[in-house]
Write a structure and sequence with these properties.
The protein has about 325 residues and is of the alpha+beta class. It has two domains: about 110 residues; about 150 residues, Heat Shock Protein 90 (2-Layer Sandwich). About 65% of the residues lie in helices and about 15% in strands. It has seven helices and seven strands. The strands form two sheets. It has a five-stranded mixed beta sheet with strand order 2-4-5-7-6. Strands 1-3 form a two-stranded antiparallel ribbon. The two termini are about 50 Å apart.
Length: about 325
């Protein structure tokens, strides 16, 4: 079922929900007014049946009026309880439906992004291979096309890995395997891979040797790759991306700094949400699915570590992962 159809269906249900809610509230108010009116009419009728001046007349009238007040209070109490129950149920349903609408929109955006992410590298790789097949190119041109094709297939591999890992994490089917990892070598390897893939980009490294931690090698590699990929994706091509690894007495710090336009304070917590992408022009034009930082945070948390973003002076952002000793 297409996501757009699901969204329209949920919107129809949402409108129907509000109509029924208003109808129920109106019926509850009408029920209270009708019962209270009937209660008053019964009290008036009972009083009219009494003979004035007889013994105990005033006491009987007082008892009838007291009973009327008690029934009014009873109706008001019952109505209030029903109203609170209806309100609580309406609030829960409202939140659930709104969440479904939001997820439907996010999934639709994700599918559009994935479709674009899949089609572009496939089309580029196909064109490069057809060019190599049909034309006689010199060695330099061949190597450039081959390198470009490798970059596009790496993009495909990263996208598929992110989607698969996201699904496994959501369903709880991925269990991390902790082993002793040379984090220094892992960070150097990740940086070296991007330097090879993007030879024209200025990527600097400052890695302290011999830092060992307990963790899942594949997942940590994916987390660091996502941070480096984001830094390259959202910063100017002539800017510098700096990757560092250092240790203090309390923590081990992995940092990826870029010279992008930076991230607004209001966006810094949202960027780790699933499918979330900052709503500025630079972000919308960049390729991506909104899963990278979400997965990175999940991986980091599974390693009892933390991740945060801070401003890079004079411009840009620094993503920092902190591991406890």
């Amino acid at each position: 079922m297409p996501f757009s159809y699901k969204t329209k269906k949920l919107r129809f249900i949402f409108i129907l929900y509000w109509f029924l809610l208003l109808y129920i509230v109106a019926a509850l108010v009408w029920w209270f007014i009708a019962l209270n009116k009937q209660n008053h009419q019964m009290a008036v009728f009972e009083i009219s049946q009494l003979v004035k001046g007889t013994r105990g007349y005033n006491d009987t009238v007082a008892a009838i009026l007291d009973q009327e007040k008690r029934k009014t209070a009873q109706y008001l109490g019952e109505g209030s309880v029903f109203f609170l129950l209806i309100g609580a149920g309406a609030f829960i349903i409202f939140r659930a439906v709104r969440k479904q609408l939001k997820q439907g929109q996010q999934q639709q955006q994700l599918m559009m992004a994935i479709t674009h992410e899949l089609k572009t590298p496939i089309a580029v790789a196909k064109l490069n291979l057809e060019t190599l097949q049909k034309r006689k190119l010199d060695e330099t041109q061949q190597q450039r096309l081959i390198q470009n094709t490798i970059q596009e297939t790496n993009r495909l591999n990263t996208l598929c890995s992110n989607l698969l890992l996201s699904s496994q994490i959501e369903t709880g089917r991925y269990a991390i395997t902790k082993e002793e990892i040379n984090l220094s070598e892992l960070v150097e390897s990740c940086a070296s891979d991007f330097i090879t893939r993007f030879p024209k980009r200025n990527i600097l490294t400052n890695v302290t040797d011999g830092i060992l931690i307990q963790g899942d090698n594949l997942m940590l590699q994916m987390a660091i790759n996502n941070l480096i990929d984001n830094a390259l994706k959202y910063s100017p091509k002539d800017s510098t991306v700096a990757i560092s690894l250092e240790t203090t007495e309390q923590e081990i710090l992995v940092a990826v700094a870029d010279e992008s336009k930076g991230i607004a304070a209001s966006e810094k917590k949202k960027i780790f949400d699933k499918y979330y992408r900052i709503g500025n022009k630079a972000t919308k034009e960049a390729k991506g699915t909104g899963l990278g930082l979400y997965l990175t945070k999940k991986i980091v948390r599974q390693h009892q570590a933390d991740i945060f973003v801070k401003d890079n002076n004079p411009t840009g952002s620094i993503f920092v992962i902190t591991f406890k000793h």
